[in-house]
Amino acid sequence: MASRNGNGRISEELLEAQNRQMTEDLSQKISHLKNISLDIEGETKEHNRLLNGLSLDFENSQGILSSSFNRVHKMMGATSGNRRVMCYFSLGLVGLFIVGYYIIANVTK
Asked: What whole-number distance in Å separates Cα of residue 27 and Cα of residue 19?
């Protein structure tokens, strides 16, 4: 019987040692997960800050574009001379866009 008690104590000690080791491993994994979640939280806050800044930039550019469009619309409706100037201006912009496209396409090759 003494050997059974001895084996029982050894197996209990072995189980307790395994339990402690598993508890330590679990604690390390939880700590690692906590660090990862804190990193994700930081990244999320940074991305939200950047997106809010972009939203403000888009709102500002929308205001600029709408005021420019209103001015162009007024100029188009004023007289036929202004329409001719606007037509030449539009053709010039399209031409500049095409030339710029070809320059950029040739530079990147």
From this structure: 12
What are 39's two structure tokens?
Answer: 């990193």
Q: Cβ distance 72 to 86 under 8 Å?
A: yes
In the 8-state DSSP scheme, what is residue 52? H
Ranges of residues in the chain whose predicted pLDDT is under 50: 1-4
> 75 with 82: CB under 8 angstroms?
yes
C-alpha of 23 from chain center: 37
- pLDDT tens for each residue of 47-71: 999 888 888 888 888 888 888 888 8
Distance CA 68, CA 64 (A): 6
